[in-house]
Amino acid sequence: MSSLKAFVIRVNNIPAAYAPGETIIGEVFVDLNEAKSCRGIYLRFKGKAKVKWTESGGSRRTRRTCSAEENYFGTEVYVVGRPDGEIELVAGQHVFPFTFTLPMNIPNSFEHKYGEVVYNIKAVMNMAWAWDPETCLPFTVYSPLDLSQILPRTIDDEVHADYCWCIFPCISEGFMEAQIHIPSSTYAIGEQLEVFVEITASSPSVDILGIELRLKQIIEFHAESKTKTTSEIVQRTGKNGPFQNNIHINLGLQVPSVPHSGFQHCSIMNIIYRLGVKFLVSGCHCDTKKYYDVMIGSKPIAPAQDVARSLVPPTTSTEFPTGGFAISRTSSIPTAPIPGMMGDLATITGTSNPPPYTPVPSIGFRIPSPSVPVELTSATVPPPSYESVMAEDSKK
After folding, report:
1. How many CB atoms lie within 10 A of CB 178?
2. What pLDDT digit, counting tens, does each position of 209-223 carry?
3. Which of the residues 44, 138, 377, 387 could staple to 122 if both were Cys, CB 3.0 to 4.6 A apart?
């Protein structure tokens, strides 16, 4: 029977979603069936991006792997013990609090077949000459693209298409002309993307059967001297015709929940969005397509940290011991506290540094908050009332 009954990482946000620059507050929970000796327990905070794919080489039988990585942070710190020491954890439950402040310039979490941006916290119990038990907690970083910092532009374009007879291309069947107006080039997720089309001329023998809008997502993965590109239609809509001359058509498309444009702070991946307007025509003639670059992001009114907190349940303000990290004293935790979280260490001990580890049966590293009686002073005692003074005089 293993002496390690439970070994988990618990954090303040549920789900574990954070904004760049926000402080992660959590704890390592250990439950032992019997006493266990180890060098200590350390945490490893890691954030990285990775792209990888294979492609054919010079011959059919050879294949080459293209890959690249980008590291954003990799911090390792002991919450108890040290690499060259030895401690004994008694049987029972132990709680070791920690905090970690995320860097500002880190990209959004992302997962794809050919690339990913991942963040996680790993706790390792460093054993002397034995297998090291470990546990891992992935978390999400929400790094929004603030569209209020990007100047939008109006898109106006003219469309012209000539049609020829299918059997004899030298014989003309007329032409089509249209005006396209898109009010803005920047859109937030959930917004309505509107396109105004005016058909000014059309062929008498070629009908415009419909107009289709397509929002295309293009992702670029960059490895050493190689780039792989994927494309996908993430949203589409349209209107059926046929349409005649001098007609105004209004089309709308709701922007779906997709990763933001640009993939800021990541140099090995890029995301581009293009809006396509397609004119469907009759006969054997080719459809006319036009594409325009648009930016998709968010338009936050509050700071980025408040946007990330909106992904998790309502929170309240509580302080935790530092556990060896610098801590921001304005952090959020769920209204229902996580079992085992401690009070403010500075209030208990009068210092911001954690005390040396002392095993305590059943409750581990927990320090109870002292109960301080409140003493009334002359400044807090109210003055006597008029009735009480008169009653005292009558007794005398």
Report:
1. 24
2. 889 999 999 999 999
3. 44
